[in-house]
Every structure is written in structure tokens, then in C-alpha cells.
């Protein structure tokens, strides 16, 4: 009786027991380079969104400062009309009312875009609005100016720092996200180039 010989033909070996093929080191390296490149580009996109927000905030605060300057000029014009109309009769106090309204409008723009507490800003502007609407003569205008100057003095430091900080933040994040874009793109391209066909 002859012994049965073992099947040594690889083509006839049972399926499902062959070891998984190893990933070539070059292909694995290319895969990781592309992964990290894509991740850095994605992070760059996120920082770009934040930079756009800071840049828009800087623009808003700059425009608010320009509006405040224009309303100051208009208010001075109305004050000059008030003093020029003295002794000519008529309701010259209306010019002071218009001057107070202009100054109030300038404050709204500055305080609404500043980094101050929004609840405090709303309360302060509400009080200032109430005083401005009651201006009808020189004493009431002087009372408005006392409150207005106090508000400006309390908020000016925060407003100026907010404008400067927004500009610096926008500039820093611009270079940061641009660097992430460049590095991420280079890594992805290198990974694509070294990946075996």
C-alpha cells in the first residue's frame, strides 16, 4: 500500500489562508504625506475663515471711526448755525438738537463694533439716546455733552485697542493660514510624486 503524497502545488492550496500582502514602504510613505498635506490644507481653510472674520471686523471698526469723524463735523456745523442764529428769532435750539443727534449716531457706530460688553453698550446708548432726544436749548445740550464726553472717555481706550487688535490678528492669521496652505500642498504633491504606479 502506497502512502498518499502531500499536495505541494501552490496553485491547489486551500484559499483564505494566504498571508496579506505587505504595503510597500514607498507607497505607505506617499499615503501619509498626502494625508498630512490634506490635513494641513484643511486647517489652513479653517484659519482663513477666522482671518476673514477678523479682517471684516477691522473694516467695520474703521468705517465706524470714519462715520464718527463725519458726524462730529456735522455736529460742529449745527453748533455754528445755532450761535450764528442767535438774536435772529426762530427756533435756534433745533440746531443743537440736530448736533446732539449727529454725535449720538457717531457713538452708535463706534460702540456697536467695539469689543465692549453688548448689554452694557445697549444700556449706555439707551441713556444717551434719551438725553439727546430731549435737547432743545443750550442748557440741555450742555447736559448731553457732559454725558457724551463721559461715555467717550470710558470707551475710547477699549475702542482703539479693539481696532488695533483686529488689524494685528487679521495680519497674523493671514500669514499663518497661507503657510499651512503652502506646506500642505507641497506635502500632498510630494506624496503624489513618490507614490508607485
List the helices and strands and how they pair.
Elements: H1 25-84, H2 93-112, H3 118-133, H4 138-194
Helix pairs in contact: 1-2, 1-4, 2-3, 2-4, 3-4
Report how far apart the termini are: 54 Å
Instruction: Give helix and strand order, one letter per element, not per position.
Output: HHHH
Task: Kindly estimate the percentage of residues that lie in beta strands according to DSSP.
Answer: under 5%
Q: CATH topology, which one?
A: f41 fragment of flagellin, N-terminal domain
Largest sheet, in brief, is:
none
CATH architecture: Up-down Bundle
Average of per-residue pLDDT values: 77
Low-confidence stretches: none
CATH class: Mainly Alpha
- What is the number of helical segments per DSSP (H or I, 4+ residues)? 4
Count of strand segments: 0
Radius of gyration: 35 Å
Shape: rod-shaped
**Overall number of structural domains:** 1
Structural class, please?
A: mainly alpha
**Helix content bin:** over 70%
Any overview of this molecule?
With 197 residues, this protein is mostly helical. The chain has a single domain (26-194), classed as f41 fragment of flagellin, N-terminal domain. Helix content is 78%, strand content 0%. It has four helices and no strands. The protein has helices at residues 25-84, 93-112, 118-133, 138-194. Helix 1 (25-84) packs antiparallel against helix 4 (138-194) and helix 2 runs antiparallel to helix 3. The longest helix is centred in the first third of the chain and has 60 residues, at 25-84. It is rod-shaped, with a radius of gyration of 35 Å. The mean pLDDT is 77.
